[in-house]
Amino acid sequence: MASRAATRAARSMMAMVGPRYFSTTAVRSDQTVAMKLLAGHVTGSGSHVRGVPSAGIFRLPVAGVRYSSTATVADVEEKKPETGSAGGGGPQEKGIVSYWGVQPRKVVKEDGTEWKWSCFMPWETYKADTSIDLKKHHAPTTFLDKMAYWTVKALRWPTDIFFQRRYGCRAMMLETVAAVPGMVGGMLLHCKSLRRFEHSGGWIKALLEEAENERMHLMTFMEVVKPRWYERALVFAVQGVFFNAYFLTYLISPKLAHRIVGYLEEEAIHSYTEFLKEIDNGNIENVPAPAIAIDYWRLPPNSTLRDVVMVVRADEAHHRDVNHFASDIHYQGRELKDAPAPLGYH
Ligand SMILES: [Fe+2]
Ligand SMILES: [Fe+2]
After folding, report:
1. Rounded distance from Cα 244 to ligand 1 centre (Å)
2. Could you list the residue range(s) of the whole structural domain that residue 308 is in?
């Protein structure tokens, strides 16, 4: 009896499981899709991007095995991505295979050599305009302007005490804050555009570009200065406070929020000027520029930390202009979307 019951149970299980695991129909259709996807990558081309025929041809049989066996799931999980400290790629990443057939495209520089970064692409790089007027200052006249000005001056006081003349560390830490306003402003304008069914005039992209640019300052300085555990803890706490404070300020008064950032950027220009003086005095060693900075700002290969600080300071001057301009638009009773955003203003 027991043996008959067991046989019935086994038959019933096979009837349910059979079509799913023993038919090749679904597998073949998946293979066809995978092959089509891979074939698409083989023929892809662009100004900086080239297809990789050898990689596509090599991966086809692998895709066949992958799509017809559940064992390959574990296989994928075992292959952890290997990334460099600065988001660079390289030959050691060859083992990463996507279950979904999404292959990274091979990107090359203008000189034909392989692009080593995955965190930014060659078409996002630029030559900084270092001829920008660094001394331009928005004189605070209204109550809100004075509030913004003195808020920034008050914030500078504890910063000066904490960092003294350690400008490398100071730059790295302040960039963790500087990259927040653009993201908050861009996010709020994005939501506003969705709520009101209206265009943003390019301001969402302009503010997100600013946030990304500031984050690249951080990615550069962390190659020169390594944060200590208590500095990481400080960033954690400051970000929690600053993100929420800026978010609320932007909701209540974007005019004030942009003015504050305008003055913060004026202070950043001052800090980087002091940084340059320390390098010129020999108090800070003028080490070779990090590779990420050379590629991001298209600097000559023999550039130094001084060259990097120069281009970063030029970036801060551009952010100063953009944010004072944004505040001025609000002062004139208009909305940001009424004035075309200064996209790609470096
Ligand atoms: Fe910055
Ligand atoms: Fe900045």
Report:
1. 20
2. 143-338
Answer yes or no: is 344 within a domain.
no
Q: How many angstroms does the Cα of residue 12 sit away from the middle of ligand 1?
A: 67
Q: How many domains does the chain contain in total?
A: 3
Residue with tokens 């709520």: 195
Report which residue type is found at 50. Answer: R
How far apart, in Å, are the Cα atoms of 251 and each of 45, 62, 200, 206, 319?
44, 52, 16, 18, 20
Using the structure block, give the residue that is written with the tokens 């970000």: 239
Q: What span, in angstroms and rounded, lies between the C-alpha atoms of 205 and 211? A: 10
**CATH code of the domain covering residue 200:** 1.20.1260.140
Give yes or no: residues 244 and 199 share one domain: yes
Closest ligand to the CA of 181: 2
**Together in a domain, 174 and 86:** no
| Per-10-residue mean pLDDT, the chain, length 346 | 48 45 40 40 38 35 37 40 47 66 82 90 94 96 96 91 86 94 98 97 97 96 92 94 98 98 96 95 96 96 97 98 97 95 91
Is the separation of the CB atoms in 205 and 343 below 8 Å?
yes
Asked if 68 and 8 sit in the same domain, the reply is yes
Same domain? 183 vs 278: yes
DSSP-assigned states of every residue in 296-342: HTT--TT-BHHHHHHHHHHHHHHHHHHHHHHHHHHHTT--GGGS---
What is the distance in A from the centroid of ligand 1 to the CA of 307?
Answer: 15
Examine residue 135 and state whether it is found in any structural domain, yes or no: no
